[in-house]
């Protein structure tokens, strides 16, 4: 369609024919009937076209009949509903509509047409692609600011449209109001008009304008509002007091609430309204001096203005008014006068008049309507300590929820819970006081909320409930005087909450599970300790309530936390405490509750529903434990009730005993020991089939059983049962002791480790019997695995197994193996031997020679299987066992077995072959990682060689010439033992993997140590050539700065020994010109002189260089450059850096050698002595604060198939026993002792 000029009537002749073009494509429109060009027209989906110039002329001409304008607006509305038309309009022609629409709105008095125009503007501004809203805001705000329209009907439409535009989120209103001050002034002036409709629109516009300023923090707008605030408040409150329309009230209350939230009410209420009005009197011709003086102050006017909204029938008006009161009173600078005025003006009466509880059904309906208002009142009275209407408000809330369970929505439930939580939180923190009745009602309201249908729909409210419950309990427990009434209400809430979260409908919900755990935590952490400590001051009713809560937790015995809570009860001597309660309250209710709870406690602890014996006998049970013992001494053969009581009594005493509740076993409850009863018991144990793994037993009882030699047959059978349970992984945690319940295997291991019983003897004898009888391998394997398990639990078990002859039992098993068939138990036996040797004390092995024969068998196994090179799991484990035998020989144990190892020709040849093959690889050795065949062979044979070197001093004392290791390899076969020469180790250290470097460096250090001792004892000279030593020193010197501190330390120690030997023979001339040795000394000195060297780790990194430097300082002919390196400045900085963190034995030795080399002056020596003295005092002051070191379990091997585990253990054992160990295995006490000794030696020089 298109429009003719404004003088012509609309005619259907001007409709264009439908276009057959693609509906998604806007084809060019032909010129309209008035000749306007097609570029200002758009086609519609119906086939017509819309000429924007015609439309503009039509709506802008006041002479055009309104029916034509209404029709044109209707057609435009239809076209705007078409997406393509709207999208094209917004991108090309939209600005043709802004001016005519605003002009029409400002000039037309017809309300329906004005509504059409506003709807059209709203559609255009709310479109996603639209950016035209700012233009409308700018033009309409200009019209309103100018006051050109006066306060007419047309102004009403403009105000309404302006309010609609300010509500659009996609319009930047603030930036497009040109004159904010003029606009606000015109709006404020308009509040004086008599039209309530216009005042309502003005109040809404002011409300939206104010909200925008404060939300966007527009400084100019806020200043304008602040400057006009006195007059604005005056006129707004007067409008609120006069109006009877709820829509005007809502707009006015919303505006006042915004101003109150921003503190503008607080800034204005102290001024008298006469002064406020006089300030603007010159601008307001309607005001006179008489009217100004007659106006009351703000507080009074506010009180008068809110009475009408409070009595409104619209619940939203009442809620918003209560919210306004809340913000009005919540401002920081609220004076007491303000509250007093509200009270004097009877505002509280207005509130409670409409909320007052009535027995009539009609009022109940009105109360339901006013429920939101009650919540708003609750916000206020909850914040004021001991408010006089606090209890009445809480009662209203409680009544509404209990009488009408569906009244509270999810959001209201959450709102109420938050307010009540805040009240309890402030009460617990003693920030506010709380009436006793108020506390009780709060607990009751929470219980009522739990029963409302909408409670489950608000997961967040569970968090509030959880915190409220904790605050209620803690507040009750922290009262200075015991108030059983308050704790009773808190426990009532606790019970109801636990019942809610354990109901079938809530049981598996995540939020309810967390709430249930919270309840148990409150009981365990707070309620239980308080109850145990103050039971004598708690009333019977509160005692029943607390026990009921505890009982409810125990009834959920499938819950892990319930089991933990039960164990906590028995650890607190609950059985004795329960009988104490029976002594305090001798009523039937207490007796019933005590025994019911004990029965459930037994159910949870013993897990066999054994508590039914106690429940069945409750009517006949006495209240005194002594009476229970008396009943046990009676004949019950003809008395079923007495028999039931005896069963219950035995169950109570048995459970209390296994959980160490010893207070029931004091002297006056002792029963005499009966030898006849013991004989009968032993007879029953030997004759009848019983299973210890299915019996709940205390560790003391178990220990007593294994001390009885007369039932050894039955105990041997029980050991077999334990081994079978251990083999299939079905260990039962049924033994009680040290306050915890552990597995039977654990306590069996502890019995053997402690000794003083027959457990170890029976276990070894059982293995011996199985070996002699040739039992099935499964039985043997189960016993061997049990031994492995108990050794891993308590390594000291190995000592008692050796003492009780495990070596002989192992020898019998080994003798049963043939070379053709070793059996599957062989691998398990090897694992046991390894773990025993890894954890046994050498002193125990010295007295046992049975393992010597076992070692011979294992050596034969290696020779026949040739496993030293083929690398099977059994062979590796055998080599590991041989290494441990050699390790113990250095302490005088297994000497004969060690001698057999070091002199075994096959083993000597095999090890030499492995090393020769590896060394022949040269630089290519770096490609052979630890998991290759060569890498594995070296990783096992080198530790064996290391321990053989340590063993040589014992097994072949004086028979080995250590100089033989330092020369060519041509005389390899002349030695009776394994001989890996020094240069081969240098190759391995230079080309090997990091692990091979470490192992080889330890072996080389052991060679150097042996040679050094030989040179010192025999006063020999080195027989190796200078060239040989030069090559060795080149390798060692390069490794002083190795990343692995252990390799670097070992290399430095070896290099230091060479320097000492050369010094004895006067061959140290090369040091004077050696740049490498000077670099070592300089690197160390500069590092120690830097302030960053305060770290202990940093100093440890430079220990290898310290060792080499000390060796050079000890030379007879010291290099002259040492004095240059350690000049006065360097040494002073090193001394200054000394502290308790970086001091070490090596550092003190370094300073001692510097002093003996006359490189320290007297002042530096004095400073050092003073520093050492302070450090000694500091160490003594610290005492043993760092000496407490957790006992580390001896490492054991869990599988024979894990070669890496065995290899790592051997390497760690080798490193920790190396002369230059830097593994950190020394305790703090050992290190401190070494440092103190060296500092004392320094002070004596």
From TrEMBL:
The record ties this protein, via InterPro entries, to: ARM-type_fold (IPR016024), PRD1 (IPR044968)
Q: Might you name a Gene Ontology BP term for this protein?
A: meiotic DNA double-strand break formation
Region of interest (Disordered), ranges:
19-38
The record, for PANTHER family, names: PROTEIN PRD1, PUTATIVE RECOMBINATION INITIATION DEFECT 1-RELATED
* Name used for this protein in its record: Protein PRD1
Origin species, per record, is Capsella rubella
| Lineage, opening ranks | Eukaryota, Viridiplantae, Streptophyta, Embryophyta, Tracheophyta
């Amino acid at each position: 369609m298109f429009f003719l000029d404004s003088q012509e009537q609309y005619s259907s002749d001007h409709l264009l024919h439908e276009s057959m073009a693609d509906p998604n494509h806007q084809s060019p429109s032909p010129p309209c009937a008035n000749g306007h060009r097609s570029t200002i027209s758009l086609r519609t989906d119906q086939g017509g076209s819309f000429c924007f110039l015609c439309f503009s002329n039509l709506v802008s001409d006041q002479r055009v009949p309104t029916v034509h304008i209404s029709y044109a607006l209707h057609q435009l509305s239809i076209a705007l509903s078409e997406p393509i038309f709207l999208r094209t309009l917004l991108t090309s022609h939209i600005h043709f509509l802004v001016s005519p629409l605003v002009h029409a709105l400002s000039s037309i008095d017809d309300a329906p047409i004005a509504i059409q125009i506003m709807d059209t503007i709203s559609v255009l501004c709310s479109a996603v692609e639209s950016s035209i809203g700012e233009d409308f805001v700018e033009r309409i705000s200009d019209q309103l600011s100018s006051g050109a329209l006066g306060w007419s009907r047309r102004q009403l439409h403009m105000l309404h449209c302006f309010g609609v535009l300010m509500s659009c989120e996609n319009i930047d209103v603030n930036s497009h109001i040109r004159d904010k001050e003029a606009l606000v002034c015109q709006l404020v002036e308009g509040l004086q008009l008599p039209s309530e409709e216009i005042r309502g629109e003005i109040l809404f516009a002011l409300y939206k304008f104010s909200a925008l300023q404060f939300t966007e923090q527009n400084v100019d707008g806020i200043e304008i509002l602040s400057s006009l605030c006195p007059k604005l408040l005056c006129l707004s409150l007067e409008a609120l007091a006069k109006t009877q329309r709820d829509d005007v009230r809502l707009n006015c209350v919303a505006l006042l609430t915004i101003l109150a939230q921003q503190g503008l009410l607080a800034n204005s209420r102290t001024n008298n309204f006469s002064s406020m009005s006089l300030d603007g009197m010159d601008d307001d011709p309607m005001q006179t001096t008489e009217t100004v003086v007659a106006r009351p102050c703000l507080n009074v006017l506010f009180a008068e203005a809110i009475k009408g909204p409070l009595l409104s029938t619209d619940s939203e008006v009442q809620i918003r008014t209560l919210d306004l009161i809340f913000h009005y009173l919540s401002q920081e600078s609220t004076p007491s006068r303000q509250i007093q005025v509200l009270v004097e003006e009877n505002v509280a009466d207005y509130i409670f008049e409409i909320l007052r509880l009535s027995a009539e059904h009609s009022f109940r309906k009105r109360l339901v309507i006013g429920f939101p208002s009650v919540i708003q009142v609750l916000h206020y009275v909850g914040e004021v300590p001991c408010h006089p209407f606090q209890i009445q408000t809480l009662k209203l809330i409680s009544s509404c929820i209990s009488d009408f369970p569906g009244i509270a929505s999810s959001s209201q439930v959450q709102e109420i819970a938050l307010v009540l939580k805040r009240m309890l939180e402030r009460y617990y923190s003693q920030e506010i006081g709380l009436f006793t009745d108020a506390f009780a009602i709060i607990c009751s309201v929470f219980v009522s909320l739990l029963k409302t249908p909408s409670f489950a729909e608000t997961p967040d409210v569970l968090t509030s409930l959880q915190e409220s419950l904790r605050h209620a309990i803690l507040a009750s427990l922290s009262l200075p005087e015991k108030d059983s009434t308050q704790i009773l209400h808190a426990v009532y809430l606790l019970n109801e909450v636990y019942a809610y979260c354990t109901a079938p409908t809530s049981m598996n919900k995540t939020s309810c599970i967390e709430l249930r755990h919270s309840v148990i935590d409150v009981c365990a952490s707070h309620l239980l300790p308080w109850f145990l400590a103050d039971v004598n001051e708690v009333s019977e009713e509160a005692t029943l309530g607390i026990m009921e809560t505890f009982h409810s937790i125990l009834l959920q015995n499938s819950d892990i936390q319930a089991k933990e809570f039960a164990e906590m009860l028995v650890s607190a001597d609950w059985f004795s405490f329960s009988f104490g309660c029976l002594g305090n309250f001798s009523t039937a209710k207490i007796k019933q509750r005590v025994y019911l709870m004990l029965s459930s406690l037994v159910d949870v602890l013993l897990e066999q529903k054994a508590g039914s014996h106690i429940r069945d006998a409750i009517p006949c049970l006495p209240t005194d434990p002594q009476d229970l013992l008396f009943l046990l001494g009676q004949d019950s053969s003809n008395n079923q009730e007495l028999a039931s009581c005896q069963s219950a009594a035995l169950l109570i005493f048995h459970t209390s005993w296994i959980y160490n509740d010893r207070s029931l076993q004091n002297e006056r409850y002792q029963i005499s020991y009966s030898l006849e009863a013991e004989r009968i018991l032993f007879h029953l144990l030997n004759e009848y089939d019983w299973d210890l793994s299915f019996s709940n037993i205390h560790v003391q009882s178990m220990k007593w059983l294994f001390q009885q030699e007369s039932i050894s047959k039955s105990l041997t059978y029980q050991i077999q049962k334990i081994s079978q349970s251990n083999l299939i992984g079905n260990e039962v945690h049924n033994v009680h002791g040290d306050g915890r319940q552990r597995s039977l295997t654990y306590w069996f291991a502890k019995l053997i480790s402690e000794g003083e019983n027959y457990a170890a003897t029976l276990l070894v004898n059982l293995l011996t019997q199985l070996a002699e009888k040739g039992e099935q391998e499964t039985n043997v394997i189960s016993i061997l695995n049990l031994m492995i398990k108990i050794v891993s639990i308590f390594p000291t078990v190995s000592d008692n197994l050796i003492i009780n002859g495990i070596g002989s039992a192992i020898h019998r098993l080994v003798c049963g193996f043939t070379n053709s068939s070793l059996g599957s138990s062989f691998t398990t036996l090897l694992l046991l031997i390894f773990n025993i040797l890894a954890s046994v004390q050498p002193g125990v092995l010295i007295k046992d020679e049975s393992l010597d024969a076992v070692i011979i068998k294992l050596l034969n196994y290696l020779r026949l299987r040739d496993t030293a090179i083929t690398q099977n799991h059994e062979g590796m484990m055998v080599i590991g066992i041989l290494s441990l035998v050699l390790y113990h020989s250095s302490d005088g144990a297994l000497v004969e077995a060690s001698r057999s190892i070091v002199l075994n020709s096959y083993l000597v040849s095999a090890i030499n072959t492995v090393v020769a093959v590896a060394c022949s690889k040269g630089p290519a050795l770096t490609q052979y990682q630890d998991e290759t065949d060569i890498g594995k062979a070296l990783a096992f044979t080198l530790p064996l060689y290391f321990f053989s070197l340590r063993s040589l001093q014992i097994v072949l004392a004086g028979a080995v010439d250590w100089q033989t290791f330092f020369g060519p390899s041509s005389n390899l076969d002349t030695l009776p033992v394994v001989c890996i020469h020094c240069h081969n180790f240098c190759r391995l250290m230079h080309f090997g993997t990091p692990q091979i470097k470490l192992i080889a460096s330890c072996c080389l250090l052991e060679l150097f140590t042996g040679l050094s001792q030989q040179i010192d004892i025999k006063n020999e000279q080195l027989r190796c050539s200078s060239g040989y030593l030069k090559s060795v020193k080149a390798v060692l010197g390069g490794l002083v700065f190795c990343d692995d501190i252990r390799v670097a330390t070992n290399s430095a120690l070896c290099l230091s020994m060479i320097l000492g030997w050369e010094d004895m023979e006067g061959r140290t001339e090369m040091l004077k010109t050696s740049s490498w040795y000077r670099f070592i000394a300089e690197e160390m000195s500069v590092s120690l002189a830097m302030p960053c060297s305060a770290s202990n780790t940093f100093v440890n990194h430079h220990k290898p260089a310290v060792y080499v430097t000390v060796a050079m300082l000890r030379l007879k002919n010291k290099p002259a450059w040492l004095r240059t390196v350690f000049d006065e400045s360097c040494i002073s900085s090193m001394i200054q850096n000394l502290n308790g963190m970086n001091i070490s034995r090596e550092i003190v030795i370094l300073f001692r050698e510097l002093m003996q080399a006359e490189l320290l002056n007297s002042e530096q020596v004095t400073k050092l002595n003073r520093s050492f003295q302070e450090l000694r005092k500091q160490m003594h002051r610290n005492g043993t604060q760092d000496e407490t070191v957790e006992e580390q379990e001896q490492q054991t091997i869990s599988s024979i198939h894990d070669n890496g585990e065995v290899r790592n253990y051997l390497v760690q054992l080798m490193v920790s026993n190396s002369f230059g160990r830097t593994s950190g295995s020394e305790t703090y006490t050992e290190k401190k002792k070494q440092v103190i000794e060296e500092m004392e030696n320094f002070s004596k020089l």
